Amino acid sequence: MLAGSVTAPPAQAAPAAPAAPLVWKACGSITYPTLQCASLKVPLDHAHPSGRQITLALTRVPHTAQTSQGPLLVNPGGPGGSGLTLAGYVASALPKPVAAQYDVIGFDPRGVGRSSPALDCAPGHFKTVRPDSVPASAVLEQTNLARAASFATACGRKYADVLPYMDTVSAVRDMDAIRQALGAPRISYFGYSYGTYLGAVYAKLYPQRVRRLVLDSIVDPTGVWYKDNLGQDYAFNNRHRALMAWIARNDSTYHLGKDPAKIEAAWYAMRAALAKKPADGAVGATELEDTFIPGGYYDGYWPDLAQALAAYVREKNTKPLMAAYEKFGAVDASGDNGYSVYAAVQCRDTSWPTSWKRWRTDTWAVYRKAPFMAWNNAWYNAPCAFWPTSKSEPVSIANTQLPPALLFQATNDAATPYPGGVTVHRLLARSSLVVEDGGGNHGITLSDNTCLDTYLAAYLNDGTVPHGAGVADAVCKKSPDPKPRAMKAASTASRGSTLHDLLGYRR
């Protein structure tokens, strides 16, 4: 059943159990020195508030202005993304006079990171070298299918008591417990990616408790989650081709020619070669896809990926490829946790096809037009075909009770394609949509686009929203393309140095 077809039953919007006051302790870093940490116990099952309790990890950057606008909860997406550091990033990236008015609150949703219990269904599930994602033979298909089923089985065996309560609505109930613990009658909310769905569902269940609502890179609620993932496949294929075109435009640096189609063919030739002989015994065809998929989220990663491709094609030099894999594709314990939560939430949120024939037919149909991520994405989500819990019904986010909300969407976003932003704009009465025309990044505010950030700052400062005559209420030019980097120059970017390193990307 698709989102938008049902409305959450009234019981889901019942008040959360009373929460104890939070005890904040300094936990700042060199980058975010004023960050504070706390923990909050919430019911595992909000329908039984006196039953088993779990723990949420929280962070805060306190307001410094004389007058406070209250809490601003922030979420990086996922599901499975940690929001603890994001609080520091948002507080430092907003204009100081605006940030000073808010207590910026980060949190690890249930199951994530420093919250407890933190899920890790099958440690090492993404260890190399994995089977080729494209099931060119029945043996490959069955091997990948067995991996997906075994992951679901491992989750069910390890977390049988937790999985029935790993879903978006439960996370939303946790958010309202945070609000209560903060002693705030209302909260403001700022979410990216999956965080937009989390925020929209919160606004549906608790409209009277929303002060301001910012959604950036917006999930289409009418497609959660099977349909949305198929839509991603086409969009990521387009972004991969945009990378090939960027490499062609920078032929003086990468020397792979000026024809994007030929560069794309070279990429697929590299993929075929790595399927036969993985680079350094670690990066095969599937790991190559994992490495390049983040380039669909953020073009700031393109110089590293272009170096990796050019060095391999021209010199059979695998060092840049291995460096790119370690930076973008490798999955550590944190990634195992994030994927476990991703699967637990998405598989529980809604019904998925249980017939593998449906998955196979749909994915091959996509692959014929958009091969880059089709099968990789199918296997990423395939545990949902075997998930051991019952399924929830998605929440209709249609809402006429909210104050004005502010939405941001890039027209060429791959992870949350543009039509989703338009759909949510239509479903949220009095919302305003700001569009980055031609932009392809996922997560576009607080990422060096002054036009977008001006609208964000005005809204958080005094509630001002733009009003336009068309689908979009305001349009901003896209951020400039990244500059190429000399082939022998190493990347100076570090983890956590940009917004996009903090968002809940799959990698």
Automatic annotation (TrEMBL):
The keyword tRNA processing does not apply. Residues 71-440 form the AB hydrolase-1 domain. Gene3D superfamilies: alpha/beta hydrolase. The keyword Signal applies. InterPro entries: AB_hydrolase_1 (IPR000073), AB_hydrolase_fold (IPR029058), Serine_prot/Carboxylest_S33 (IPR051601). GO terms for molecular function: hydrolase activity. Keywords: Hydrolase, Signal. It holds the Pfam family Abhydrolase_1. Belongs to the peptidase S33 family. This is AB hydrolase-1 domain-containing protein.
